[in-house]
Every structure is written in C-alpha cells, then in structure tokens.
Amino acid sequence: MTLDSDEAPGAVRPGQVAPPRRARHRRVPVALLLPAALGLAFLVLPLAGLLVRAPWSTLPQRLTEPGVLTALRLSLQTATLATLLCLALGVPLAWLLARVEFPGRRLVRALVTVPLVLPPVVGGIALLLVFGRRGLLGMWLDRAFGITLPFTTTGVVIAEAFVAMPFLIIAVEGALRGADTRFEEAAATLGARRWTTFTHVTLPLVAPGIAAGAVLCWARALGEFGATITFAGNFPGRTQTMPLAVYLALETDLDSAIVLSLILLTVSVAILAALRDKWITSP
Amino acid sequence: MKIRNTLAAFAMSGLLLLTGCGDSSDGGTAGAPASGGSGGAISVFAASSLTESFTTIGKDFETANPGTKVTFNFAGSSALATQINQGAPADVFASASPSNMKVVTDAGNGDGTATTFVKNQLVIAVPKGNPKGIKGLADLTRSGVKVALCAEQVPCGAAAIKALAAANVKLTPVTLEQDVKSALSKVKLGEVDAALVYRTDAKASAADVEGIEFPESAGAINDYPIIVLKNAPNKAGAQAFIAYVQSDKGKAVLTAAGFQAP
C-alpha cells in the first residue's frame, strides 16, 4: 500500500486545505501521555527484569549449548508454517464474516474467538480429542492413512495455528469492515466477478490489515506453549519449540531459562522490526 | 499509514505480552494462596503428586483443629521452589525431590532441616486392560509401543532415566512431558501405550490406568522432604501441620495413596 491510497478517500476535497501533518503532533495532552507512558512501562518492565537478571558473563557458552539452535529453528519454522495456514484459512473466513450476511453470523463470529478464551492447555486437550489417536477425526486418519498427528512437527503447527488464527481473523475482519466498499462496488459495476474483485480490489485494499494480523498471528504462534506441549508433546528436534525449552530449563536452571527467553525475544523482535520497515518503505 | 502504524505498534506490544504469557499462564498456576497471618490460616506449597493425599490430610487436619484453614498450592516442585525463593508467603514446603528442597534451603529459606516423610517409586502406567500386554521395561522398546516419559529436568524423569539405566534398556519415547500428571494424561487419552509414572499417580487414576510394578524401580526411589519455611507467616501452624502429616493418621492417608514409609 502506498501512502496516497491510504489517505485517498476524503483527502482531496475542493476548498479544504489539508492540515499540515506536524500540527497534530504539537500538543500531546497529559491525560493521554501519562497513561500511555504507564502502559509502555507496564509492557516493557518485565523485559527489563529479564535483562537485569540475565547471566551476561556466561552468555556466550549458553548460546552455543546443544539444543538451543534446534529449538529456535523449529520455533521459527513452525510459527511461519502456522501463519501460512492461518492466512490460507483465516483470510477467507474473515471475508465471509465481514462481507456476507448469513444466519448465525454473530454466533460464528463468537465461535472464532473461542481459542482466545480457552486456556491453551485445554485447547491442546480439545485438539487431542479431535485429532488424537482415539480422537473423532484422528481415529479415522490413523486407520485410513496411518497418520497420527500428536507428537509430530505437524502437530506443533496445528496447535499453534489453532491458538493464533483468531488474531489474524479479527485483524483482517476489522480491516475489511473499515475498508471503503465503494471500490468493490465500482469494480462490480465495471463487470468484475466477485472473485476478481476480491483478488484485485479487496485484498490490496486490506493488505496492511492482513499484514498486521499475520504479525500478531506469527508472534502468538511463536510464543505458544500450552496447546503445543499438550497436543504435540515435547521431544527435542521434533516438537520442542523455544517456549517448551524455556519451561523445562526453568525446572532446573533459571539462568538458562532467561537466556532462552531473551534469544526468542531478540530474534522475534528483530524479524518483526525488519518486516515492519519493509511494509512502510515499499511502494 | 496511521492505521498501519497503530496496528504495528499494537502487534509489537502484543508480542511482548504474549511471549511472556506462554509460560506463566500455563505453568505453575495460582500464585500464593492468601494467608491472612491470623492464627488459623496455613499455606502449604506441595508437589503436584501430593494433590490427592494432602487435600485429604488438610481436611482431616481442619476437622481435628477447629478454626484452622489449610490452603494448598499444588505445582511442580521446581516451580514451587522458585515461587518460595521469590518471596511467596508460604508456611510449609513439601517437595517431590531432595534437589528442589535443596534449592530452597540453600537460599536460606528453610527453617531447620527438611525431613523425609514418604518415598515414592515408579511403575509403568498402561491403559486399563493393558492392550499391548506390557509386563516390564523391556516390553517398552517393542516397535509400535509409544511411550511417554517425564523430561529429565523433573524428578519423575530423572527417576525414569535411573531405572532404565539399571535395567539396561534403551528407550526412545515419543514425548518428554513436563510433569508426571501430563505423562499420565497421555496414557488416559490413549495417545501413548505406556508411561513411567509414580505408583501414587497410577493409583489415583485406577479407573483409567493400570500400574505395572517392575523390579528396577527399586533403584530409583524418590524421597519427599518437608520443611517449615523461614519466612512462614504462621510457623506454629506449619509445625502442627507437618506433625499431623507424620502422625499415624497422616501416614495412613499417604500409604493408602501408594506412598511408602521413609
């Protein structure tokens, strides 16, 4: 998305001078600044706590401990695959919720948020009851194809996608509902089919919303713990992602748990910051 | 532009929150039970394998000592040790392993020395009816038998490694669970064919699982130490509770649950 298209509707109106951008930043009301600063402190202080307590002197040897890179690689791979899965299924579902009137839409919208409300461990149990070896679908998968999902890397992706997809759907649905439908109507009057309108008008229009949703989704998948350890178990190299490694390190060694957490945070923040710059600068 | 920035900022702050959340919300659960410090409230931090027996003992203790109120915080011993060392207002700590007790006493948070009040040993938990016909550790290595062990960082995992070494059995589990209850739940749900768990855990789930004794578990017996904490808001109550746990009535409850006398 370019800067122009973002501000296109309403920006060029005859007889109205666009206010200079800086004017909006001149006075920041204290009533907003104070809670904003508190909010930031609330979010950042725990991170500071980790940094203060981190065992800096032994950091290099802890970073090269076997298993750390394996867990990190597995985390990045599974979170990315889970995000792709969420995009493939979540964007169409968000579109359905935002653009199509159907009976029970409110109920469906509420159901979509279930994984947000469910404690992740319960989510993991629920996944086992459906996709497990004795689960509703899992039993059939096992008998017909010999496929079992628990304790596999695919299981990790499924657990992460289950927990993270609502973040994507809510972000994309919000973007769709906020988007100007006149563009889609114009496309329709020019004879575009609904699919063409979706791919050529709607998707570019809400691309920032999809990107933001994908970022949220990826971040949630990366930090996923409860559903993963319950559904996919914990085995190094196969299902042990970073959050699981952190939790188990906590059992014996607080310092190495802190180091693992910092690695996860650094890598994820770096990736997100790099992506964010790319979106804003690219035309 | 503006919306995008807002969303990006939201995403970033969400990330910081969520990556942190993963552990705390699923891990130890429930911080310190509130203890008013007034006479009757006793706050006991106990290993999750003590859940059933200590809940019973707590009720008996309250009945025997009217006016007292025992609250429990059941979690993995290491999580409890961390909470105690971070200043959680607990009166009693009952650990499933001496090593986690040592974490607390080494930090100077114990009052006196810990005493071992029970022992526990491993059994092979299999689904009711033992569909795979498992009789001993060697059967766990058969192809097509899925096994869950505890991770070596937690006491039941350390004991499992000792027992397997004693039996000279090389075993590749499908998962290394974070505590004994989740290893057991994988058996209950039928996701694995067997798991090495404590005899007490198998006994507490006798409706769903069978516990198969094996001789090598004798080499991996787990001691359970208990102690009054140095910063206990209710020291007298803590001592009374520990005395009750070690009394004949307390012992009877623990033995019925499958624990052995020290």
Describe this structure in words.
The complex is a heterodimer of chains A (about 280) and B (about 260). Chain A is globular and about 65 Å long. Chain A is mainly alpha-helical and about 280 residues long. The N terminus of chain A is likely disordered. The relative contact order of chain A is 0.13. Chain A has a domain of about 180 residues: MetI-like (MetI-like fold, Orthogonal Bundle), CATH 1.10.3720.10. Chain A contains 15 helices and no strands. In chain A, helix 9 runs antiparallel to helix 12, helix 12 runs antiparallel to helix 15 and helix 14 runs antiparallel to helix 15. The termini of chain A are close together. Chain B folds into two domains: about 120 residues, D-Maltodextrin-Binding Protein, domain 2 (3-Layer(aba) Sandwich), CATH 3.40.190.10; about 100 residues, D-Maltodextrin-Binding Protein, domain 2 (3-Layer(aba) Sandwich). Chain B is built from nine helices and ten strands. Chains A and B meet through helix 1, helix 2, helix 7, helix 9 and helix 12 of A and helix 1, helix 3, strand 7 and helix 6 of B.
End-to-end Cα distance of chain B:
69 Å
CATH superfamily of the domain at 66-240 in chain A: MetI-like
The share of residues in helices of chain B is 40-55%
Number of domains of chain B: 2
Strand order of the biggest β-sheet of chain B: 2-1-3-10-4
Q: Please give the CATH class of the largest domain in chain B.
A: Alpha Beta
Separate helix tally of chain A: 15
Q: What ranges of chain A have pLDDT less than 50 throughout 5 or more consecutive residues?
A: 1-16
**Model regions low in confidence, pLDDT < 50 over at least 5 residues of chain B:** 1-38
Strand content of chain B: 15-25%
Q: Decide which structural class fits the backbone of chain B.
A: alpha/beta
Largest sheet of chain B: 5 strands, mixed
What is the CATH class of the domain at 66-240 in chain A?
A: Mainly Alpha
Order of helices and strands of chain A: HHHHHHHHHHHHHHH
Say how many strands of chain B there are: 10
* Radius of gyration of chain A (Å): 23 Å
Put simply, the count of helices of chain B is 9
